[in-house]
Input
Amino acid sequence: MKDSVNIAVIGTGYVGLVSGACFSEMGHRVICVDNDENKIKMLKKNRMPIYEEGLEELVKKNVKAGRLFFTTSIKEAMHYDGIRTEAVFIAVGTPPRDDGSADLSAVEKVTAEVAENMSDYTVIVEKSTVPVETCLWIEKTMRRYNKKNIPFDVCSNPEFLKEGVAINDFLKPDRVVVGVSSERAEKLMRRIYKPLSKYPLLVCDVKSAELIKHASNSFLSTKISFINAVANLCEKTGANVELVAKGMGLDKRIGPDFLKAGIGFGGFCFPKDLEAFYWLSKQKGYDFEMLKEVKRINEEQKMWVVKKVESELWNLNGKVVSILGLAFKPKTDDMRFAPSIDIINSLVSKGTKIKAYDPVAMDNAKKIFGNKIYFAKNPYDCVKDSDCVCLVTEWDEFKKIDFKKVFKMVKHPVMIDGRNLYNPKEMRDIGFTYISVGRP
Ligand SMILES: NC(=O)c1ccc[n+]([C@@H]2O[C@H](COP(=O)([O-])OP(=O)(O)OC[C@H]3O[C@@H](n4cnc5c(N)ncnc54)[C@H](O)[C@@H]3O)[C@@H](O)[C@H]2O)c1
Output
């Protein structure tokens, strides 16, 4: 491809691997780097270290086409096969510290290595979610380790993909945001995103780009907590949150998305980004108190399932509770900050025996729960002899469950639907005591 750019993506996780595969699909030459040797070994054997729909095919296709490579070495990635890398995307993890701030040590570490191994003008692109002004620190770090004074620029290019539909989000984005501080860097970034030219590209200053990401995730979290608070009010008044959300969402200023009541948000983004945005605001002298309330509502909402189980089963000691779904949302194996973790830990601490099933997140869940819970072979094995069934993640597979069959298998027909997946009338007609979020 005429405008093809030689790219390195550092961090080959949910964001880095999808970005790398998609950039190569867009015609660029991409080297994906990770310091996890096992991940790179797997990828070199065409095996995926994470579950993401369509990823395996995309990776295989682009590896075969000679556009996608893997290494554990940043040094090697900077001149892979003798060809100089022009743009380095940083996509390493930025996990939360105990105080809520983002741990940026991996960002600093890889920045230093890039600086030590550049040989010509390079654009360093921050793709991980980071607090505003991180790019300033990247620039300082680059200067410190760039002993040969090689020219470089630092850009911010936050990623908005959603796990489960990540490839579609990357290749058909609502928008691409690029924060730049020089014309030279802007030119290269425009070349990289040229294949996506039919989608909006917002080019702005670096700090605004950084802030857009945290502000977006905090706003979406706010929308979820808002509708969950409304659901609580619906439960107290007998109104139906689905109808309330529908009526609200028809207003173009509000929109229908992210107005689905449930058991709160989890995952590697919303909880930590909300915390980090609050922490950063406070550091800067602005107490963004609203975000604290968004978090509080979410923490409380995650315990909705536990409260409903208690209200139905009375004493929990020795009772059997089935958990359908463990991943923080459907179509991913990601268990990071999944509401299922808090729910299960709380139920176990009250003496409940847990049987759990998830279509793809079982391996990751086993690392968290060990032998504390029973991992079922399928949904029916999960619900067998149960005192109460709880739907925690709304996988498509669970829509197809035959509840007439389940009715005969459980000890007591109690269904607590934390995602409003099922039709209340149908469940009650079968004979279940059926409880959902904010619906009569
Ligand atoms: N997961 C999402 O849906 C999503 C969406 C948008 C943005 N983000 C942001 O993107 C960033 C990455 O998230 P993720 O979900 O891909 O995390 P991840 O944990 O899946 O991936 C991070 C990868 O970086 C690697 N890594 C860490 N230190 C390294 C080093 N020194 N050298 C090389 N590799 C190193 C890790 O081994 C890991 O494979 C985070 O800031 C996250 O907030 C995530």
